[in-house]
Each structure stands twice: as C-alpha cells, then as structure tokens.
C-alpha cells in the first residue's frame, strides 16, 4: 500500500479492503487468545494476544476482561447492566415506550445503522480504547494494559511516521482501521440482534439455550468465512468459548442440534442492523418502526 501511494491513492484505497480483512482476522485471533482458546499454553495465548492488540488497537487484558462479562450475560434481559456492550445491548418495547420523547430520539439516533455501525466503530477503536474510563479502579492489571498499549503504539506511530512520513502513514493506516472496525462491530452485533434472536428473563437463561436461540450461525461465502475467522459460527463459540476458531466449523458440522440454531445469510445479516428492540409479546426482535409510541404516526 505504501508503494502504491506514488501511483494512485485510489489503488491504495482498493488495497485497504483486503488489508482490513486481514486485520479482522487478527482481531479474531486476539479474541481467541483472550478466551485461552487459540493455543494450549495460557502464556502463549496472552503474549500473542498482546501482539495482536498492537494491530487492532484494543488493549488485550482490558478488552479480555470486559468481553468476559458479555459471555456471562449475553441476551439476558435481567443482567444487561453486567454484560451490556456494543454487540448485544437492547431495550424491550415496553422500556422504549417509557422513555421520554427526547431520550427516544437520542436512543434511535445512536442506533441508526449509519451511526452505530459506520461512525462509532472507528471512534471506539481509535479513541475510546485509549482511555480506561469505564474500567473499575481495582482492575489494576487491565488499566495498566491500556496505558502500556498506548505507550507502545505511540512509539510505533512516531517511528513509522519518521520513516515513511506521517501523511503517508495516515493515508495507509486509517482506511484499514476504519473498514476493519466497521466490519468487526457489525459481525458481532448482528449475531445477537436479528429478528429471530431470543432474549431471556430470570431463570429462563442458560448457556445452552442462549447459545442455540440467542446467537446465530452466519453463513458466509468461504473467502469471507476465512477472513472473519469462522466467527459466523457464533452459536458454537458461545456454547464453548474454549473452542478455537479453526475448529468451529467442524463442531457445527458434527452436531445436528447445533445445525438447528438460527441461520443468517449475508443478506439477512445486512437487514439485521435495524433490529434493536425486544418484543416480549411477539417473542422476537423488532424495528423501531414496528414499535409506535404516542408521538409516532402509525405505519
């Protein structure tokens, strides 16, 4: 990509697409390392995860512990405060209707696909992950990981900028990070928020039930499945996070029960970005337009 800058910036941008695909795959490796799944050795997992975080910009130890809360509480309406994240948060239709008009507008604005899936993801990776503002004070190792990652990144940015030029570095690195962050956030979010996704209350929730009804099998073309590190087999991953990404497809193929999980095509997944509310009466996710309030016009 650096070599093409002198030829055509459009060519550089075209190359940023496959480069972003590789970055998404690196993030999936970091994700597996965080679960202790990619290697048998915990030490190897941790060091490879830390190295990956220098490419993904997501501080390894801090992200790993926060992500563990997601795995403890996903699609559980009674424990959203413990596991809420950018991938699987939602309100019920009843809760949404009880919001004030201003708060409803704010909620809908932040979850518009252009905002939630295009504008915010790059900001999360480039800026939000630079500060441990939502990390509890007693998570000392995790807070240290944020500062240590920032220090190494700063040194790498200065060093690379001095070699290739800071303008050239920005023209190469920023498009890769923007595209990869958009793809990554979309991948994780649509596999918890789609029309057939089930959200549980109280004692309904179980790991097996939430895996097979609250997450999906995102069936992707083979090349996209490879770039995304098989994360489309999300139901298998949630059933057992210690299964490495390179074994997920085999596990899915070996179990008829796993094959009964909700299946999304690429087209289905693109539509799923509109589903943000859980309708308990219908037992499914719905769009904002399917949940009129007193101030909305019926459609």
UniProtKB/TrEMBL annotation:
Tell me the InterPro entries matching this sequence: FA_desaturase_dom, Fatty_acid_desaturase
Pfam family for this entry, one: FA_desaturase
Transmembrane portions of the chain: 114-132, 144-166, 172-190
Q: Does the keyword Transmembrane helix apply?
A: yes
What does the UniProt keyword field contain? Answer: Membrane, Transmembrane, Transmembrane helix
Keyword Transmembrane appears in the UniProt entry: yes
Q: Which residues form the Fatty acid desaturase domain?
A: 9-258
Task: Please list the GO terms describing molecular function.
Answer: oxidoreductase activity, acting on paired donors, with oxidation of a pair of donors resulting in the reduction of molecular oxygen to two molecules of water
One annotated Gene Ontology cellular component of this protein? membrane
Which GO annotations describe the biological process of this protein?
A: lipid metabolic process
What this protein is called in its record is Fatty acid desaturase
Q: Which organism is it from?
A: Vineibacter terrae
């Amino acid at each position: 990509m650096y070599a093409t800058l002198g030829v055509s910036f459009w060519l550089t941008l075209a190359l940023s697409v496959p480069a972003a695909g590789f970055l998404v795959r690196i993030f999936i490796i970091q994700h597996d390392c965080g679960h202790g799944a990619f290697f048998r050795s915990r030490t190897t997992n941790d060091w490879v995860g830390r190295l990956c975080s220098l490419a993904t910009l997501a501080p390894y130890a801090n992200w790993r512990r926060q992500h563990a809360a997601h795995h403890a509480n996903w699609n559980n309406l009674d424990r959203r405060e413990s596991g809420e994240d950018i991938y699987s948060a939602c309100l019920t239709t009843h809760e949404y209707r009880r919001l004030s008009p201003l708060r409803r507008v704010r909620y809908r604005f932040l979850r518009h696909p252009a905002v939630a899936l295009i504008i915010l993801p790059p900001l999360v990776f480039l800026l939000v992950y630079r500060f441990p503002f939502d990390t509890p004070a007693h998570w000392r190792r995790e807070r240290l990981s944020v500062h240590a990652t920032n220090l190494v990144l700063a040194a790498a940015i200065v060093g690379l900028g001095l070699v290739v030029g800071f303008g050239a570095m920005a023209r190469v690195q920023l498009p890769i990070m923007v595209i990869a962050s958009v793809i990554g956030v979309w991948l994780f979010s649509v596999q918890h928020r789609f029309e057939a996704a089930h959200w549980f209350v109280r004692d309904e929730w179980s790991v097996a039930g939430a895996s097979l009804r609250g997450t999906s099998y995102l069936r992707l073309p083979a090349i996209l499945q490879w770039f995304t590190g098989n994360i489309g087999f999300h139901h298998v991953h949630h059933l057992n996070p210690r299964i490495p990404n390179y074994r997920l497809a085999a596990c899915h193929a070996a179990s008829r029960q796993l094959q009964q999980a909700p299946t999304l095509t690429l087209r289905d997944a693109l539509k799923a970005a509109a589903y943000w509310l859980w309708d308990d009466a219908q037992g499914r996710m719905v769009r904002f337009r399917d949940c009129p309030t007193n101030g909305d016009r019926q459609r």
